[in-house]
Amino acid sequence: MSLHPADPDAGRGPAGVLYNFCVAPRSQGRGVGDALLRAALTEADARSLHALFTATTGGGELFLRHGFAPASAELAPRAWAQSLDPARNSRVLARTL
């Protein structure tokens, strides 16, 4: 997880971003992703983050099950949102904490 400071000018609190969050195909369906995501949410809460963001080119079912929802990249940390490659057609997901 990368940490991004608050951006008071944009009305954003401190946020975290999960990069390259994936589970090897042979380990999928065994609860590994759930455990990793729960740990990330616990860490985000411990750091008093306002929100946690990720981007996916897939369905994002794991994130949706854990309270994430589709979000505008404009709500995400500016540096991260600007780094998203439009050609990948990623969907931004966020969870307010």
Brief characterization of the structure:
With 97 residues, the protein is an alpha+beta fold. The chain has helices spanning 32-46, 61-65, 78-83, and strands spanning 2-4, 15-18, 51-56, 69-70, 91-96.
Number of domains: 1
The major beta sheet can be summarized as: 5 strands, mixed
Number of strands: 5
Helix content: 25-40%
Ranges where pLDDT stays below 50 over 5 or more residues in a row are: none
Architecture (CATH level 2) name: 3-Layer(aba) Sandwich
What does this structure look like?
- A 5-stranded mixed sheet has the order 1-2-3-5-4, covered by helices on one side.
- The longest helix has 15 residues, at 32-46.
- It is built from 3 helices and 5 strands, in the order ββαβαβαβ.
- With 97 residues, it is of the alpha+beta class.
Topology:
Elements: E1 2-4, E2 15-18, H1 32-46, E3 51-56, H2 61-65, E4 69-70, H3 78-83, E5 91-96
Parallel strand pairs: 2-3
Antiparallel strand pairs: 1-2, 3-5, 4-5
Features:
single chain, 97 residues, alpha+beta, Aminopeptidase, five-stranded mixed β-sheet, 5 strands, globular
